[in-house]
Amino acid sequence: MRALFNWRGLFGRQDAEKLSGEDIRSVLGHLDAATDAVIKIAIESWRFGRIFEKTAVKLKGAEHERCMNQLLSFNKKIENSLEALGLRMVNIEGTPFDPGIAATPLNIADFKADDELVVDRMIEPIIMGKDGLIRVGRVTLRKMER
Length: 146
Known about the structure:
Strand order of the largest sheet: 1-4-5
Number of domains: 1
Shape: flat
Distance between the termini: 24 Å
Oligomer: single chain
Largest sheet: 3 strands, antiparallel
Radius of gyration: 17 Å
Order of helices and strands: HHHHHEEEEEE
Helix content: 40-55%
């Protein structure tokens, strides 16, 4: 699975560090405007869903359950819309960090080179298409617990 995310191998390691999601799309082939718009909406919906989930956790009983069911339904509709275009969002939270993953770590400078790291939080999901990477995700890292 790691090979699927090793987008840095397509470019030089230093050049790949500078690439944003927009750059990846132009290198791998420009998406049509409608697909690009759906991707942007899906990412913003994903972010909104994360905030909604944190808020719903504070609710109790039936209200909490109702909100969580609505969120699951909403997420399923987003997934189905992406799937219809041959796309999917990838969340790698909790996985060991590897410099070859298709995500930009925002806090990598906070750690030493020999620290064992894990993906703590996805800020933006990775977007994959039928032919590979469409958009690089953004993550924060933390030290692996021993």
